[in-house]
Amino acid sequence: MEQKLEMKGGGTLTVCRDGPRVHLEAVRPGDGRGLYKAWLLGQRGGRFLLGTLAPEGGVLRLKRTIPQGDLERAGCWPVAGAEAPLAFPFAGGERWYCEAHPERLLRDPVLRSQIRGPMLCRKEQGGFRLAAPFRTDGPVALETLFCLARLERLEGRAHLVWSFDREGRPTVPHKTGSFGQN
Length: 182
Description:
By secondary structure, the protein is mostly beta strands.
């Protein structure tokens, strides 16, 4: 059985139960305003974060398959609705955006091969910066450039940030004091 819901904040969420699993697909128009998170709302008052919508085919999209038991424990089964609030606005001095294919910006084939998906990007005079979420218990994006990464807080989370020149070559970052360092 397939259910299509309008998401508060724009777009639709398709919910399809397949035995013990629930397939979910959130789609909303890309408006260039920032990154959007999709949340599932349950009839028992629960909220379940599905994730961040990524650019795909001219829209923002997120696909997930989640065990129905997980949604029941979160108070989100049966499903009552969904929302897609703006989680990280691009407006302001630092205009980060989601670059769907950051590997296209890099010159070195080894670095290009280490890119596994979309990354945050910010164009700057003389080049650009790429950012990926950082976790101590997971793999590091652009691992060969780990020593050139800066740890910065974006969207309330720790990110590794790399600087590149216009040709996509890595550069040594400048100290900005993002985590209280000078």
